[in-house]
Amino acid sequence: MRSSSNPAFRNLPAGQGGYATFDRGSGMAGGTAAYADRAEVDFGRADAGQRPITVDDIVTKTAITAGAAIVAGGLTAWSGLYALALPAFIVGFVVSLIIIFKQSSNPALVMTYSIAEGIALGGIAGLVNLQFPGIAFQALIGTVGVFVGMLVVYKTGAVKVTPRFTKWLMGALIGVVVLMLANLVAGFFIPGGMGLRDGGPLAIIFSLVVIGVAAFSLLMDFDMADQAVRSGAPAKFAWYIAFGLMTTLVWLYIEILRLLTYLRQD
Length: 266
Prior knowledge:
- By secondary structure, the chain is mainly alpha-helical.
- The chain has one domain (51-263).
- The chain is 64% helix and 0% strand.
- It has seven helices and no strands.
- Helix 1 crosses helix 3, helix 3 (107-131) runs parallel beside helix 7 and helix 4 packs across helix 7.
- 38% of the residues are buried.
- Mean pLDDT is 82; it is low at 10-42.
């Protein structure tokens, strides 16, 4: 059984089905059936009268949520209302917990999360941009580039999402979180902590590792979206999948922004 590194995708209901998907080589013999044994999350079949989810649904909802976050972030940075970053982050965090634990596909909640995170990132990026002009946009371009690159990797099958890959990624994710916490605790006793976030060579290497883990997490997110389409989940789940992708993109943007600040320090 495989589970995503993204908490938003871990407990979705599953089912059977076979609809147009992200499948690599869908024209090959077997089509979606060739990947049927990989499905491990029960997304539930669309009930009578409900339309099953499609790739277009996922793409559209993800574009809407990402677009809302970018606009909210841009307006926050442009207006100079950087103080909104902390309350917006708190709102986004609370809403994300509600969505995850209730497995909610409510568009209002998902949009609230996206806008709140956009404001939070806009405030943070705006402040950083004052010190390093242009860095916020560079981080955005970098995030989009990683997203597109990993989508190409997934669709071409260059890296396959297998149980072994999932275990490796989960181990890497746990390792990264443990090191972050250890560095935070060490910071209370040693100036600079373990040196993982001080901008030095070790910090740069660690940041690259974290970006790599976040990037590979996108493969898991794509695979979960693929499973939802293959299982014939209700179209409303597109909002939930968009939320899951957004959580990874937010993490990726923050880490790329952090790395860029390291590289631009004198």
